[in-house]
Amino acid sequence: MMCLVSGETYSHIKNIMSLNNETIKARLIEKFGEQVTHFETPYDMLSFEAPKEMNLKVMQFLFDDTELRFRFLTDLTAVHYPDQPVRELAVVYHLHNLVDNIRIRFKVFTDISTPDIFTATQLYSAANWMERETFDFFGVNFVGHPNLKRILNVDEMDYFPMRKEYPMEDQTRRDKDDAMFGR
Amino acid sequence: MDHHIKLPEGSIEKTTTTLNLGPTHPATHGVFQNILELDGERIVSAEQTVGYIHRAFEKIAERRPLYQITPLTDRLNYCSSPINNMGWHLTCEKLLNVKTPKRVDYLRIIIMELARISDHLICNSVVGVDSGAYTGFLYVMQYRELIYEIYEEICGSRLTTNIGRIGGFERNFTNAAFQKLEQFMAEYPAVLKEFENLFSRNRIFMERTSGSGGISAERALNYGFTGPNLRATGVDYDVRVHTPYSSYEDFDFEIPVGKTGDNYDRFLVRNQEMWQSLRIIEQAYQKIQSFKGADAEVFHADVPEYYLPEKKDVYTKMEALIWHFKIIMGETAIPPGEVYLSVEGGNGELGFYLVSDGGRTPYRLHFRRPCFIYYQAYSELTKGAMLSDAVITMSSLNLIAGEMDA
Amino acid sequence: MSRPVRFNVTPIVADAKDNIALADMPPGYSGEGFFATKLGDVVGLARKNSIWPLPFATSCCGIEFMATMASHYDLARFGAERLGFSPRQCDLLMVMGTIAKKMGPIVKQVYLQMAEPRWVVAVGACACSGGIFDSYSVLQGIDQIVPVDVYVPGCPPRPEAILDGFIRIQDLVGQETLRRRHSEQYKALLGSYGIE
User: Fold this and answer.
1) What would the mean pLDDT of A36-44 be, rounded to a whole number?
2) What is the pLDDT of residue C18?
3) Contact predicate B389/B354, CB 8 Å
4) How far A112 CA lies from chain B's nearest CA (Å)?
């Protein structure tokens, strides 16, 4: 069963599944040239990368294009790679084409000293809180976000806890000592 | 004028009342806060604060080997923990390239559909409680107890089940478990029918829930809605059908959809999903009865590198002891890679994004939590609604705080 | 090695005619038409069988509490029929579930809004000590912020365990002296939490 989005019918899908990872890759390269790089298909999901200034252009293209139709933002998160200079923070978008049932993963990398990425909230309302969560955990500054403040942690927290240099445990707790708890 | 009374800025000119539907409130089932601006009884705007039960799952997961993350996933949507556990094990199996035998898949489906029934029962009966009807809740909790007993037979625990292993289950389903399952399948349809009779055409309930908290399909998709909330708006997106996992493609079931996405439609969609879940359980049970001989004893895949063996084997057999040691000490090789897998949780698409660098713990584990994503839309759902509608909308969205904050 | 049985060694024999086990009277002196006992015992008996709990349910233990409240493990037969959500009206604060650091001030505020005599039961491993979440955002036990009377361990505790904790609270309530809340020791305890 496929889902119906904005009046589109799915009668053609059953016979012609022309959209697959190869065609998506070809369309992206056709539109953006060498700016989209690092095409991989780990576990059958196409994954690619673009410079961080282009993130909205790529996502807008994927949204508007009548063949690609990636109109559902499944997930937005970040990963911290402290040992990759200039590319420490990766913001990862998972997009989903509900009509043709294809998912892709789109990454933008930024360095940790100026982690400014354009916000996707104009395109997907779902990105609002997901970007706030990413800011809360990693410190990624989403430029143009309507309300970029901490969402899950206490407002007074002054560091970004999911970065690799910070420990998991609360350092001020007195009742559990590291000798007994095997850190 | 009294000069010593200091009023906040703009408080005399303000024409709306600020009401804090705070983190502790009988209507918020779980801890999240809504700050409402009310004009009389009408809501002008709503602002949500979450994070009151943020337990840093993603940070903890970076320090735990794969089996120790299963108890964390239990506590995401704790009303239906087995679905979270299975989803996590399926993600690990995708990363490790493990194929599970059919019997394991069918047993998993039974457990997941029982969990879905258990989750929808809580949501629907609590919508009833919030509109003043306490009876439905008490009546169906008896059958949730029966579901808990089925879990107990298999994994020992009622609520936070930590059920299953990578590749299957920790033990075969006992005869008692199958007997309880048969009892459930025999008794539950009548209960669900009676529950429906209490609410579905009840005039008071319909007037409370119809027409409030509605959202259109385009806005819902833009907000990232999934699950029953999205299906109530008319979009039939169900991960079990779109990306079948654990042999769901072998089963015949329907996806109920609504029309307007309001509270009443969500209630009806969840009720219908419970009927479909019952259908799936019955089919799975038939299929399991049809396995004969050695096939009927299979309850895990043959992957000793990742399957934590049964304790009775660990205590008596050498290989099982060695594998047990290697898995617990983290010496089995986890390949580096990135995988995203989603399952249809009680609230929608529950996704697991696992980045592994080859070590014994994940490098990064992110949970795509449906509650967190669709709660953003609450202010749009309640714009212009009355205060009592806001309460019903909140409970019909099935917001589970553990999943929201992770 | 077997342990000796400590509980229920002399169960109360139920009355065969109406099948109800009656609670014992407090020790006292009775005669023709009168019964004399300590005021504290009578007040304790009344209080303990009519506790109004405030279920401060945050997470998974809250669902087990819902099961405790439901008809299978009925909490109402212990007198806790009326659950209140307003701290002004309740005696017993049942904190069930993980308390994050963001939620800590709210637990404290709810505790402060309760009137004396008040009791607190920490249900579940997270409320007792932080549970499995030894992380930067979780308060490692609510006894960091409010004084706790009974701890119910478990993750989540079975409804029978929650009922057992409730019965211990009933024991505490029934045997509490009437002037305990004015004693120096109690004031020092509250003072150590910063509560006057």
Assistant:
1) 91
2) 61
3) no
4) 17
pLDDT at residue A11 tops 70: no
Structure tokens at C140: 């490692």
Q: What's the distance, Cα to Cα, between the start and end of chain A in Å?
A: 50
Chain C, nearest residue to B162 by Cα: C155
Q: Higher confidence at residue B10 or residue A66?
A: A66
Q: Do C98 and B55 touch (CB under 8 A)?
A: yes
How many structural domains compose chain B?
A: 1
Please indicate, yes or no, if residue B13 is contained in any of the structural domains: no
In a domain, A8, yes or no: no
pLDDT band at residue C128 using 50, 70 and 90 as cut-offs: very high
Q: ω before C11 within 30° of 0 (cis)?
A: no
Cβ pair C136:B31 closer than 8 A: no
| Residue C151 placed within a domain | yes
Contact A161 C137 (CB under 8 A): yes
Is the CA virtual torsion C43, C46, C47, C48 positive or negative? positive
The CATH code of the domain that includes A78 is: 3.30.460.80
Omega into C117 within 30° of 0, i.e. cis? Answer: yes
For residue C81, give its domain range: 51-173+181-191
Mutation test of the interface with chain C: which of B21, B24, B49, B191, choosing the one with the most C Cβ atoms within 10 A? B24
The parent domain of residue A112 ranges over: 21-25+32-117
pLDDT band at B135 (very low <50, low <70, confident <90, very high): confident
What whole-number distance in Å separates Cα of residue B182 and Cα of residue B176? 10
* ipTM confidence score: 0.90
> What is the reported pLDDT for A9?
40
Helix axes B387-396, B263-289, angle to 10 degrees: 20
Residue whose entry in the numeric block shows the structure tokens 């290697």: B326
DSSP B116-145: HHHHHHHHHHHHHHHTT--HHHHHHHHHHH
Q: What is the mean pLDDT of chain A?
A: 85
Residue C84 belongs to domain with CATH number: 3.40.50.12280
Question: What is the domain count for chain C?
Answer: 1
Question: Order of strands across the sheet with B42-49?
Answer: B17-21, B33-39, B42-49
Give the CATH number, domain containing residue B195. 1.10.645.10
Neighbouring CB atoms inside 10 A of B148's CB total 21
- In this predicted structure, the answer to whether residue A105 has a pLDDT above a threshold of 90 is yes
Q: What is the mean pLDDT of residues B292-321?
A: 89
- Cβ of A168 within 8 Å of Cβ of C101? The answer is no
Most C CBs within 10 Å: which of B32, B33, B55, as the mutation test of the C interface?
B55
Whether the predicted pLDDT of C72 surpasses 60? yes
* Contact at CB, A176 and C134, closer than 8 angstroms: yes
Here the tokens at position B20 are 């804090």
> Does C106 fall in a domain?
yes
Nearest CA in chain C to B118: C63
What letter does residue C12 receive in the DSSP assignment? P
Q: What domain count does chain A have?
A: 1
| Residue of chain A with shortest Cα separation from B237 | A3
Q: Does residue B325 lie within any of the structural domains?
A: no
Give the pair of three-digit tokens for residue B128.
């009833």
- B258: which residues sit within 8 A by CB, 6+ positions away? B231, B232, B233, B234, B265, B266, B268, B269
A102 lies in a domain?
yes
Query: How do residues C92-127 score in pLDDT, each as one tens digit?
Result: 999 999 999 999 999 999 999 999 899 999 999 999
Residue B240 lies in a domain: yes
